[in-house]
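Teaching assistant here, posting this on the class forum so everyone can see the example we discussed in section. The complex has two components, and the goal was to see what a joint structure prediction looks like when all of them are supplied at once.
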Amino acid sequence: MDQLVTAIVAVVGVPAALVGYILLSERLIQVLPEKRQGRIRPWFWIAPAVLFLFVFLIYPTINTIVLSFLDAQSKNFVGLDNYVWFIQDRGTIEALRNSVLWVVFMTAGVVGLGLLIAILVDRVRYEPIAKSVIFVPLAISFVAAGIIWQFMYQYQDPSRPQTGTLNALIGLVGLGPTRFTQEEPLNNFALIFIGIWMWTGFAMVILSAGLKGISTELLEAARVDGANEWQVFKGIILPLLMPTIFVVGTTIVITALKSFDIVFTVTNGNFGTDVIAREMWQQMFTPPGNFGRASAVAIVLLLAIIPFMAINVKRFREQEAIR
Amino acid sequence: MTVVTKPLESAGPTVAARKQGRGLSRVFLHVIVIGLMILWVVPTLGLFINSFRQASDVARSGWWEGLLPPWDFTLDNYSRV
């Protein structure tokens, strides 16, 4: 019953409050001289959005920065100690290295495979089915993907039949079973491949849409002039798709930097597979919990992401300017 | 002038031929696309099939063996959920 009341309040109350706010602010504006009204009205309209942005985005960010200069219980000021710990600790350096691996290989894999699949399925009649199949993993949660791939990577003692799909397959060609999630550096790439498997569908769909936007006359003209398929790809498709590839690429870079769930479910950061985001979780939630260090890791992650965000925003602005 | 006409003559039939598909490369294309589709579907398929098997079977043999007779599928896992 309580839930129902809450739901009704949310559905009716929130729009009512918003409309009320607009009407009330309009009343206030009417008091002002006519000249000023047009100037001041947009500020009233944008105020709620700015307020929400401040409460849910800007304040937490500033708070995290402050916390990163405090100790584990957020009581005493410790200066740069948490950052010094970050660059001296072997665990965090390893996590940083793995995050770089994630960024490089997941981005290359997702964009490369996405582009390849987008171009290949464009030439077959069962394109919708093929695209759906590749896209499905994106709808699966990260945790479920971790479980799905545990069945793929599972390892059994060589004396017993292998239950992991990959170990059974390499057994067919006479190779011994491999501990995919434990052997370094193979395990990092095994984890990154789960990410690639999930996100390739995303890149494929967007790149495929970009591909359809390229006029067929242009491609036909090049072919009539005697260009082979590779030349068509390199000289026409690739340059025209470059802005799309760029947007997809930066999105995947940010996804790779934030990757947490796959590592968390499959290896929990053991066997040298830790990444920045999981390290942050570790500092925060494993007792006794260190707010200062966790915040420092969060700030490092934020600083790593900002350049890519900036590049993306700049690209969007440039495209707007062209329009 | 021959320089101009030559590529035109040779290009004419090839475009048509490409549309019809040059046998071998078409086969190659289908093999790659279907191969990728299988690669993408197998992990999920494995989980799906294992979800219909007894826990003891899942621990003892791979999901593909559940497809071979004797079939021993069960809805136990679902009823428990």
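For the discussion questions: The CA atoms of residues 222 and 232 of chain A lie 7 Å apart. Chain A has 13 helices and no strands. Think about how each of these relates to the inputs above.
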